[in-house]
Amino acid sequence: MFRNQYDTDVTTWSPAGRLFQVEYAMEAVKQGSAAIGLRSKTHVVLGCVNKANSELSSHQKKIFKVDDHIGVAIAGLTADGRVLSRYMRNECINYSFTYESPLPVGRLVVQLADKAQVCTQRSWKRPYGVGLLVAGLDESGAHLYYNCPSGNYFEYQAFAIGSRSQAAKTYLERRFESFRDASRDDLVKDALMAIRETLQGETLKSSVCTVAVVGVGEPFHILDQGTVQQMIDAFEIVAEQEGPAAEPDTDAGQEASAEPEPEQGAAAGEGVAPMDI
Amino acid sequence: MNFMASKQPENSLLSPESDSQRTLYPYVTGTSVVALKYKDGILMAADMGGSYGSTLRYKSVERMKPIGKHSLLGASGEISDFQEILRYLDELILYDNMWDDGNSLGPKEVHNYLTRVMYNRRNKFNPLWNSLVLGGLKNGQKYLGTVSMIGVNFEDNHVATGFGNHLARPILRQEWHENLSFEDGVRLLEKCMRVLLYRDRSAVNKLQIAKITEDGVTISQPYSLKTYWEFSAFENPAQGAIGSW
């Protein structure tokens, strides 16, 4: 995108019918470190990459618990994300107090989207520079939504936002059909694999990422570093084997499915666990 | 009448003028409401009387109304306050429907909303002079609760308001059990209503029974209970009485 004469304030349309300030806000989301989300029928998993400014500082908090049944992962201006999380927590707690019932996540995202829209139509405001992946449970099951700075929201089976999210999206696109009926642990494993895609070469360690889960009978919580590292270790060895197999997978369709199998059989003989993902 | 010039502003709670701003006593009142959980949902009974003090003035007052898709509200106490509550709930359900998503307010949510309204009014010393019974079911889960004019609320398998608490609930405690059939439930409610008819001076012999199930709300047409007044103890009651009373 380049500078033009229609991008000074959010209340100016371009002749092509675009609001450049809103689009620039979406750019801010793309610059933030990656956040991913995926869901099954009963669980939703959120994951994000922890980026610290320097080795001396701690990393920013990007996953927030909003209520027992709702959590959010953000990418972009984390300050804006923090403010919106506070708004979401407030809405949930007020609803719970009045109705003694959890706020349906579908209603929360609409309220959030309407709040974002206001900032696209006031000359004295600016759009929120943060994208939110909202994970929640309501009567109709598990949901994952993405809220844009533009005020739009979409429901997803799986999604990734932030820098190098395209790599994660590609991975998720390949695998999303299996998510609906996946077990909770498989879902977490898939989330970690998707995060690994965004790291592009960097080793996946629990210190580099944060994972959170919400599900039926499981209130929203962030997994502790120990658990995450154990899950990474469990599939890292197997994943190394998938590496060489992955290349023929993308080139040849059916032939590839035959190729990894003999490799696994040989590996099992050497005392390594067969791939179960 | 205020003979002395009041130095208080009109809206101060200390000056007598402010008393007209808050509810002091009810005028047109309904008497007991009785309700119980049965196999398929909730059954609720209330008579159709609206008393004006000791006069049984209005005899076709509907004291039970459906709320949304999942709830039934019965009220005793000031009828105009009940109508006001119906207006609040109508707005609540309207906004709930306007979301146009798969979610809807169930009986638990409506009950808690009413509790908040009643309690907040009580705190302002301007109560809605009602005792409410809220019953319903959503996704197969039955719910039955009550809220009083001071905000006391609870749920139970059977609830009643006013005189019903003293006359009907003991009967229900003895004879209610899980998974009552519709006929047994109605019979039990009629037993309670008959006792109330005999013993509550504000009761009228014209009642409705409402039921709510997964299929929706049905409020029966008004009907009357058979009563028996030929007990020999009631014949010639003054005979043998001492004095001119």
TrEMBL record, chain A:
SMART domains on file: Proteasome_A_N
Biased composition (Low complexity): 263-277
Compartments reported by the entry: Cytoplasm; Nucleus
A biological-process GO annotation: ubiquitin-dependent protein catabolic process
Keywords, in A-Z order: Cytoplasm, Nucleus, Proteasome
Domain (Proteasome alpha-type subunits): residue spans on this chain: 6-28
Record-linked InterPro entries: Ntn_hydrolases_N (IPR029055), Proteasome_alpha (IPR050115), Proteasome_alpha-type (IPR023332), Proteasome_alpha1 (IPR035144), Proteasome_asu_N (IPR000426), Proteasome_sua/b (IPR001353)
Cellular component, GO, one term: nucleus
Stored PANTHER family: PROTEASOME SUBUNIT ALPHA/BETA
Assembly with partners or alone: Component of the 20S core complex of the 26S proteasome. The 26S proteasome is composed of a core protease (CP), known as the 20S proteasome, capped at one or both ends by the 19S regulatory particle (RP/PA700). The 20S proteasome core is composed of 28 subunits that are arranged in four stacked rings, resulting in a barrel-shaped structure. The two end rings are each formed by seven alpha subunits, and the two central rings are each formed by seven beta subunits. The catalytic chamber with the active sites is on the inside of the barrel. The 20S proteasome core is composed of 28 subunits that are arranged in four stacked rings, resulting in a barrel-shaped structure. The two end rings are each formed by seven alpha subunits, and the two central rings are each formed by seven beta subunits.
Record function comment: The proteasome is a multicatalytic proteinase complex which is characterized by its ability to cleave peptides with Arg, Phe, Tyr, Leu, and Glu adjacent to the leaving group at neutral or slightly basic pH.
Protein name: Proteasome subunit alpha type
Originating organism: Gossypium lobatum
From TrEMBL, chain B:
Top-level lineage group: Eukaryota
Keywords noted in UniProt: Cytoplasm, Nucleus, Proteasome
Cellular compartments annotated: Cytoplasm; Nucleus
InterPro entries xrefs: Ntn_hydrolases_N (IPR029055), Proteasome_alpha (IPR050115), Proteasome_beta4 (IPR016295), Proteasome_bsu_CS (IPR016050), Proteasome_sua/b (IPR001353), Proteasome_suB-type (IPR023333)
GO BP annotations, alphabetical order: proteolysis involved in protein catabolic process
A Pfam match: Proteasome
SUPFAM superfamilies (UniProt xref): N-terminal nucleophile aminohydrolases (Ntn hydrolases) (SSF56235)
GO cellular component: cytoplasm; nucleus; proteasome core complex, beta-subunit complex
Family, per entry: Belongs to the peptidase T1B family.
Quaternary structure and partners: Component of the 20S core complex of the 26S proteasome. The 26S proteasome is composed of a core protease (CP), known as the 20S proteasome, capped at one or both ends by the 19S regulatory particle (RP/PA700). The 20S proteasome core is composed of 28 subunits that are arranged in four stacked rings, resulting in a barrel-shaped structure. The two end rings are each formed by seven alpha subunits, and the two central rings are each formed by seven beta subunits. The catalytic chamber with the active sites is on the inside of the barrel.
PANTHER family, alphabetized: PROTEASOME SUBUNIT ALPHA/BETA (PTHR11599)
Function (record text): Non-catalytic component of the proteasome.
Name the UniProt record assigns to this protein: Proteasome subunit beta
